[in-house]
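*Target chain*
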Amino acid sequence: MNPSALFAETLNVTFPVFAMVLLGIALKRLKWIDTAFINTSSALVFRGAMPTLLFLSLVDADMSQALMPGLMIYLALATVTSFLLIWWWAIRRVAREDRGVYVQAAFRGNGGIIGLALAGSMYGSFGLSAGSVLVATIIPLYNVLAVIVLAWYQPQTSVSWRSIALKILKNPLILSVVAGLSFAASGLDLPDWLHTSGEYFANMTLPLALISIGGTMSMAAIREASGAALGASVIKMISMPAMAVFIAWLAGFEGRELVLLFLFMGSPSAAASFVMARAMGGNARLAANTVAMTTLASSVTITLGIFVLQITGMAG
């Protein structure tokens, strides 16, 4: 396939996902949606629709393909290693009071929505089922590591590790993956009416989540972005995913594994990083600026990244 045709094929994968984000921006500017709608829809996605999507993706999956222990372990190690390297870099380059927020924004990605949506767009039901397992792999790490680095630089903030552990254990996304894997292993079948009803509910997940992401984006935040926000964005969208994928390729990963790894490592900063930074007394503006910048840039960096993986043959 010639490069122009391959690039067009790549756009067919990525553009539908980012078009929903752009739609969210447009709808917010037109005042067709507001903050109340975004808050309600985000809660609905997190507590109900996305857990249903993850559960059904695993119930319907071929587990011999969806479960990739090697990739799960590598993704976990790559996440922890990236976290430590970014922290080391922040000590040398970032003002002390901003280091915790900087590190969190640079390593914590939105794989649960952007990564999963792109995995589904690229590989269909396999992408959703394999992506669901990867989501459960990184969510606990993101939460624990983010609290560690934020608490380190906001010592006046009291941290209840028991509360954090309970939140992780009760996370709807993790519970849905455990339930889905358990149900799939049981050999039971969902009644057709229940499966179809669940699909209706689950099918709203990604469009609604992506529109909500667009609705929360602030062009003013991008215009106000500081050098620290730009630095964190470059690490999140370029340096970190490129390094992780290259090392994985050297280690023998190939094809769909490399692409899935790239999608999750190269996802933009998670909106949760802004929420947690604000809750723990960090520089919430820095977090918001990085979320906005990486979300906008991801339409370009992820598209180009997938194109490079495909044209070099690394994507299989």
In short: The first helix runs from residue 3 to 29.
